[in-house]
Specification:
Elements lengths: L1 H4 L5 H11 L3 H13 L9 H14 L1 H11 L4 H7 L14 H27 L21 E9 L5 E3 L4 E3 L16 H13 L7 E9 L7 E9 L5 H17 L1 H7 L2 E6 L3 H11 L2 E2 L7 H4 L8 E2 L5 E4 L1 H12 L5 E3 L2 E3 L1 H8 L7 H8 L7 H13 L10 H25 L5 H22 L6 H25 L12 H16 L5 H20 L37 H16 L4 E2 L2 H4 L65 E2 L10 H7 L5 E2 L13
Parallel strand pairs: 1-6, 6-9
Antiparallel strand pairs: 1-4, 2-3, 4-5, 7-8, 10-11, 11-14, 12-13
Length: about 700
């Protein structure tokens, strides 16, 4: 009756405390009455109470936490400070230094390493407190790899004051070395304002955030280790120096590699400047016959074997690539398959034949209001794949030819997308599917080059496939009993961290550099709570792979397929994917001749160098039509200040490969066209190309 008529604060704590003290039932009832009247307050909180208080503080602020403490017996700010450690990050006013990166690594990962050490110590129960973990306990940690992610987030173009350094922040790292950022006097502020007015230094347009993320199941989320504003004028060489600084800081601390794992990959979203850096830095050398990885990946014909120092490989985010594939299918130029142009007009006509899609639904797929919407892109790619099941009774000859080309496009797109979003698939099925995709676009790109797919998108998706293969091979060498989840590749974990940053402050996406640094620290705390209590996390609508309200994000718990790496035979899976690609291409009478092209492990061309050795399409400066709006980079822009366009570092120009054309299957009569011919003959409404056969010319980047 007392509880029904009143609202006792912390009734759970009150009863728990009473049971702990073994008080009588009458005493418990008396305490409930006193709690309702405000005379008695139970003390004591659980770990969940502190996690909830931390979440309230980080999302709603101190006043909301105070209100919750008063009415719901949530821990107060003082109690929270005693029980929890708030994450703080060291900003970089200029280019990140190794000392700043070390400080951030210690701040965000030091407590987790200490937790691992304590857990191992208790689990193994060594004879003395000073003894380290024994050989058996070493299997409990450091058994997977680490990815370094790099992405930018917008900031307000304003200066801000950092008391710990008595300096001004928010200016671009590229030019802030020209001015004195210390506020020694009022004149110091005047000098900085004058330098900004003269253009000697600029406000940072965006903030570069470098973070580390684990492929394992114990360490979840992205952990920022470098935060620095940029005016976007940085050269690839300067960006590479920042990345080397992060790599060096990780290697300098032996605990990081021992307890969390070695660095395996560098992931980005496909920024043009970083793409050039990736090719120059992470494809600098080729693994040789004596390398431990060679016995696993060296017998996969066509796989590019170039890596960076410490065998680090490049990666691009697969969700960004899915969005770009969707945009590519919506463009006026479209793609060329065989002798057919498949563009937005062609796709609209054929999608309208699907009974389940209304005219409005087709228009939403082809003209989305939000081009960054991942679910919408997946819906489009899946709808294209479903066209192969339609009856063909009322098709005209031209429509039949278009349908055959679209069927190949659907198989190609689904081979890439399904590998990442099908939780019932085993790791072997995923590798087979990605191998099929890689072989299909290799053959079609050799035939039509940029008319089939933009150079950059081709290079990015092939790099993604290559990185998956290398990560599985590295995991097999490190610990084959571990699981590997393909969707953990890319930089999506950093995107999720950015979502937690924007979620703070009433979902206000605008913040200064100082506010961003504070919010990043808070975002780490938020992510830690959501990781410990996933039922509290609603997720992000645009980043989901499905709009179904009750469908989980892709996560380790929801993936039902076999992902143990020792159960994967990369050699047979790669070969099976190549066979599937050959069968699909034969429907258009294309015989790619993979056996001839990759006749030996020393073949001069591979998936990333499809035309001739040393020519990487991914570093092209041509316009990428799979992006929203990207003009060709000026000749003197940072992205172009690299080696010869499309040429690998240290390589010289060479003659076109004499066997660059795909073979035609016996009994088939297909007409192919070069990029130049297509530009002159293609119709804006799509359709069939009537050009004579032409030789494959030099790859123009």
């Amino acid at each position: 009756m007392a509880i029904a008529s009143g609202d006792p604060r912390g009734v759970k704590h009150l009863i728990m405390q009473g049971l702990k003290e073994r008080v009588s039932t009458n005493e418990l009832i008396k305490r409930v009455d006193e709690s309702i009247e405000g005379f008695y307050h139970a003390r004591g909180y659980t770990a969940f109470d502190f996690d909830l208080a931390l979440l309230i503080l980080r999302l709603g602020g101190r006043k909301l936490l105070y209100a919750m403490n008063q009415c719901l017996a949530i821990p107060s700010i003082r109690a929270l400070r005693r029980a929890r450690r708030f994450t703080r990050l060291m900003p970089s006013f200029g280019r990140p230094t190794i000392s700043e990166v070390r400080w951030n690594l210690s701040e965000v990962l030091g407590p987790k390493i200490q937790q691992l050490k304590d857990a191992i110590h208790h689990a193994t129960n060594p004879p003395s407190s000073s003894a380290g973990p024994d050989a058996a306990s070493r299997k409990l940690y450091g058994r997977t790899g680490i990815s370094v992610c790099w992405d930018e987030i917008s900031q307000e173009e304003v200066a801000c004051y950092f008391p710990h350094a008595d300096s001004v922040g928010g200016l671009c790292r590229e030019h802030c070395g020209r001015v004195d950022l210390r506020l020694r006097s009022f004149q110091s502020a005047v000098n900085i304002a004058e330098d900004l007015d003269k253009g000697k230094v600029h406000f940072g347009k965006e903030v570069s955030v470098l973070a580390v993320a684990s492929f394992g199941e114990d360490l979840r989320g992205a952990f920022p280790v470098a935060v620095s504003p940029t005016c976007k004028s940085e050269t690839p060489e300067e960006g590479a120096e920042i990345l080397r600084t992060v790599f060096a800081a990780w290697k300098d601390d032996p605990d990081l590699t021992e307890y969390l794992g070695p660095l395996w990959t560098f992931a980005s979203d496909g920024d043009a400047g970083r793409r050039a850096m990736v090719y120059s830095m992470l494809m600098a050398k080729k693994i040789d016959l004596s390398h431990p990885l060679y016995k696993i990946v060296g017998h996969l014909p066509g796989l590019n074997l170039n890596v960076g120092d410490d065998d680090i490989t490049a990666d691009f985010d697969w969700k960004h690539e899915i969005k770009r594939l969707g945009r590519l299918m919506r463009t006026q130029d479209g793609i060329v398959i065989g002798d057919t142009i498949v563009n937005c007009h062609t796709m609209t006509r054929h999608l309208s034949r699907i009974p389940q899609l209304s005219a409005v639904a087709v228009d939403r797929l082809m003209n989305p209001s939000d081009s960054q919407d991942v679910p919408r892109a997946i819906d489009l790619l899946r709808a294209i794949s479903s066209l192969s099941a339609l009856p063909l009774d009322d098709y005209t000859p031209t429509e039949l030819q278009e349908h055959r080309a679209i069927t190949i496009v659907g198989e190609m797109l689904s081979a890439f997308v399904d590998a990442f979003i099908s939780p019932e698939w085993s790791l072997t099925q995923q590798v087979v599917s990605l191998s099929k995709y890689a072989h299909m676009i290799f053959a079609l790109y050799r035939q039509h080059q940029a008319s089939f797919m933009p150079h950059q998108l081709y290079g990015d998706t092939q790099t993604t496939v290559k990185n998956v293969i290398f990560c599985i091979a590295k995991q097999q060498l490190l610990d084959g009993n571990q699981r590997f989840y393909l969707y953990d590749t890319g930089d999506d974990k950093l995107e999720e961290l950015f979502g937690n940053v924007r979620m703070q402050g009433g979902h206000n996406p605008n913040f200064s550099f100082k506010q961003l640094v504070d919010r990043l620290g808070a975002a780490i705390d938020i992510d830690a709570v959501f990781t410990a209590h996933p039922e509290l996390h609603q997720g992000s609508r645009r980043r989901k792979v499905t709009r179904t309200e009750h469908a989980d994000h892709l996560n380790h718990a929801s993936w039902t397929g076999d992902t143990v790496v020792d159960n994967v035979n990369l050699r047979s899976a790669w070969a099976e994917g190549r066979k599937a690609a050959t069968n699909s291409l034969s429907k258009l009478c294309i015989a790619p001749g993979f056996d001839v092209l990759f006749r030996s492990s020393s073949s001069s061309i591979d998936m990333l160098q499809p035309i001739r050795p040393g020519k990487f399409p991914g570093v092209s400066m041509e316009q990428d039509r799979s992006l929203d709006s990207e003009a060709p980079a000026p000749a003197n822009s940072p992205a172009t200040r690299t080696t010869s366009t499309g040429t690998a570092p240290g390589e010289s120009e060479s003659e076109p490969d004499s066997s660059s054309s795909n073979h035609v299957a016996p009994g088939c009569n297909t007409r192919t066209s070069s990029s130049a011919s297509l530009q002159g003959e293609s119709s804006s409404a799509g359709g069939v190309i009537n050009n004579s056969e032409s030789e494959l010319g030099e790859l123009v980047m």
